[in-house]
Amino acid sequence: MTKLFIVGIGPGSKEYLTKIAIDIVKKADVTIGSKRAIDIFDDINEAIVLNVRDLSEKLELSVDLAIAGKNVCVLSTGDPGFSGVLNPILKIANEKGFNKDNIEVIPGISSLQLAAAKNKLSWDDANIMTFHGRENIEDILKIVDNGQKTIALPSKSVKDMAKFLLANGVDPNRKVAICEKLSYEDEKIVNSTLKEVANSDFTYMCVMIIF
Question: 74, 140, 156, 208 - which has most CB atoms within 10 Å?
Answer without folding.
Answer: 74
